[in-house]
C-alpha cells in the first residue's frame, strides 16, 4: 500500500509541477503577489516572530514543499523548525497535535486534504475536542493546511472539498482563502489563534497573482477569523461563495453588470464560525440569494447558509427561493470534459442568477 501511494503521489507531483509552470509568477511584481508567495512570506514572518512555531509534513523541507509554499524555509530555519515526515498522515498529525498540547504552535501540511482522511481521528477527536474535554486546561494551537477541492486531472480521490466536513465539527475553526490577501491574513490569524484551525486552500489558485496593498504587506496584518468580505457591492442579488469560486462569482457579476444586473459578491473567508450577519445584511438589501461552492450539494456549505437564512430575520426579505450552485453529486471524473461539467463554471452562476431574478 505504501509503495502504491508513493507512485500515486509521484504522479500527483508531476501534475502539480505542470500546474506550477502554468500558473507560477514572480513573487512580487510591483505590488502583485501570487497566493503561493503570500503564504510563503507569511509563514516566514510567523516562524521568525515566534520560536514556538514549526512546520511539518511530506516534502515541506528539502523539496521546498509539493507546491513550493514552504520554499526556502528549511534552508533558513533548519531541521528543527521545518520537518519532513514519512507518508503517514495519522502519525505526523498525531505528533503535531501532541506538540500543540505541550505548548508549541505547529503548522501541519497535508499534501492534499484528501489525505487528511487518514488522520481525521487526530484532527477531530484529538485536536478539536481536547480543550473542551480538559475543561479549558489544554489548548491545542495548531494549523492544518494544504490544498482542498478540485485540482486538474487528478480524479476522484484527489478532488474532494472538505469545507462541509470540517465545518461540521465544534472545536475547529475553518478558513478558506480566495486571493493573496486572504491567504496572507488568514494564515497569520490561524497561527496566532489558540484553537485548532483548518485552512483549506485551492491548488489552482497558488500561482495566480493579485494586487497587494502596503497595509496587507505589513507584518502585523491579519484577517479576523469569522468575518466575511464584500468583494463587489450590488443591489439586485447576493452571491455568496468561498475559495476559487469567489473569482467565478466576480466574473459572472461583471458579465451580468453589462446586462443591468448588479450582483453583490460575498467572500466567506471563514466557514466556521460563519459570518451569517454579513450575508443577512446583504440579502436584506438585494432580496435574492445564490450560493456557489465547489463541493457536493448534500449537507454542503450552501445548504447551511440556506438553513441559517430561513431561520433568521433575512428570510422575510427574500423575493424568490435561494438557489445553490455546487459541484456535481458524483465522484470527480478524470476526463477533462467531464471534470469541467462537475465544477461550477461562470455560465452556471449566470444561469442561476437569471433564474432567481426571472430574467
TrEMBL record:
Residues 33-208 form the Transketolase-like pyrimidine-binding domain. GO terms for molecular function: metal ion binding; pyruvate dehydrogenase (acetyl-transferring) activity. The keyword Metal-binding applies. GO terms for cellular component: mitochondrion; pyruvate dehydrogenase complex. InterPro entries: PDHB_mito-type (IPR027110), THDP-binding (IPR029061), Transketo_C/PFOR_II (IPR009014), Transketolase-like_Pyr-bd (IPR005475), Transketolase_C (IPR033248). SMART domains: Transket_pyr. Its EC number is 1.2.4.1. It is found in: Mitochondrion. Keywords: Carbohydrate metabolism, Glucose metabolism, Metal-binding, Mitochondrion, Oxidoreductase, Potassium, Pyruvate, Thiamine pyrophosphate, Transit peptide. NCBIfam families: PRK09212.1 (NF006667), PRK11892.1 (NF008854). The pyruvate dehydrogenase complex catalyzes the overall conversion of pyruvate to acetyl-CoA and CO2. This is Pyruvate dehydrogenase E1 component subunit beta. It comes from Geotrypetes seraphini (Gaboon caecilian).
